[in-house]
What we know:
Blueprint: H1 12-19, H2 22-32, E1 37-40, E2 47-49, H3 54-70, E3 79-82, E4 85-87, E5 98-101, E6 103-107, H4 112-128, E7 134-137, E8 143-147, H5 167-181, E9 191-192, E10 197-198, E11 212-214, H6 250-256, H7 295-302, H8 308-319, H9 327-332, H10 339-352, H11 358-363, H12 368-381, H13 386-395, H14 399-412, H15 417-423, H16 429-443, H17 448-454, H18 461-467, H19 474-483, H20 490-500, H21 508-515, H22 521-540
Antiparallel strand pairs: 1-2, 1-3, 3-10, 4-5, 6-8, 6-9, 7-8, 7-11
Amino acid sequence: MTIITPGRRPTIDEVRAYYSRPEILNEILQAMQRWHVRFLPGYSRQSWVYTEDPAELHALMMQSLDLMQANPERTEYPYFRINWERYHPAHSWDKDTLWGYDFVIEKDSFLWQECFEAMLPVMDILDDFGVYYWLKYTGHHSLHLVIPAECFPHTLGPSTVPLTEVREAIYHRLMVFLNKRARQHYNEHNRHCPPGTNMPYSVNEDTGLVNTPLLREELATFRPWQASIYLVQARDFWRTVPGVAHGCAATLLAEVLKPFGEQARFYPPLKDDMTIPDEAGAAHILSAPFTGRGDVARQSIAGRDTTAHERRLAVWQLMLDPKEEELPIFIAALVDEDADTRWFVAEALSQVGPPEILPALLAMPHDDMAGACWVDFCVRHGEAAIPVLIEALKHFKSMWVSLPVDRALERIGAASIPYLKKLLDNPDSNIRKNAACILERISGTPTLDEVLAMSTRHNREHDAALMLGWYDDACAHRRLAELAQEPRNDHARRNAIKALLWTDHPDAEQLLRHALDDKNDKVRHWAQYGIELLAQIKRSTQV
């Protein structure tokens, strides 16, 4: 009997079959022509790998999977990672052949939808500048946006400074530029450069879902279960850069390198990416090989003697087109021992569940995927879901519940405000603070006066220090300098030191040098980093 595992954690035999597909092997081999590829077998140290022989590549992966099967305690799947540094030729180790870097951007958050949504305004800005980019789902939470090295010039304007020598400064300036313009809320500074990126079509080492390249028009209909090894279709657009895209980021870099106060202050309106034509559909997935439904699926869920795998497959079949008459089946499966069965149930209920079942959803054993589904459920029902969410905000302490509750109230928006304001008088300080944070995110970026007022409250100084980085204003600069030397709050000093690098603060270098003697090692670390970064920025802007 062939085992088919929808969702996470496919069997080793299934992963063997996936990596034996000729089109997948071809994608990996083609990537090796462009990037340095690291192979991480999941049981020993990583190794660089280069081959042009598909049989050799296949044998390497099969050997790693055999060792994984022989050692059950090793749960990490073998996978491939690509390096941002681009050499010519790709497999050369000669530093003289370094000619560029890919720039990778992500927001790493608990819920995958939040990671996706935070990248939408970044895409809007890049589209306005005509910058070409790739998108890739990582197989867990994040969406990676990659600007290929070909899009960047080799030197900065008329200067002779090679981009490769000031890459960190350019990346910093680019991230500040994008974050200030793409901000949906004050706390989204953390669009950042991830520590690494798995290769497209490599399975995620923890989930077994595939690192799936996507087109922007596919984001609105994408769901993580579509990254199953059975559903992903190999496409070559990820590794191709149109000739017209070469050097297309030069105009963006010219704007990025201006002093912050001279940069164009445009904020492109957020596009409605959550509604796209049905015909865009799910072009990135193959036809599902197991789409049957009906009595067999229902009996498998209800049967006492079924395995977790059988129940998961049965729920998956029903999830693809859920019916209201199947609600009793889904509700009974909310407490299934299998996490992916619960995930698929939450997916189905987010489409057809009535508001009365929200308490049952909140009470189910949670993980990140299921939590993301019932955020969608709450948003679909809007104000009807708010009273239950407010009660959950007061009583649930588990991160698995509290973070999706916060996100659901935020996404419901203005209708949540009266309920949240009542919580500001709650005797529990944690509840008050949580309600205040959600209110701030609903109302958007606060005014400078509001941030300055917040910076005088001891328990909010560290938040305010980061938020002051939005404002290139004399009052903001003065308060930021005070927080950078605040003796009572290490966290506030560290955040103020980081925020100095997001502004044209006239005394930034002096404050950073003063912080080199700080008693807190993290403050000293960021001060040292900031001084080195300012030196690179100064060199890169001497055009």
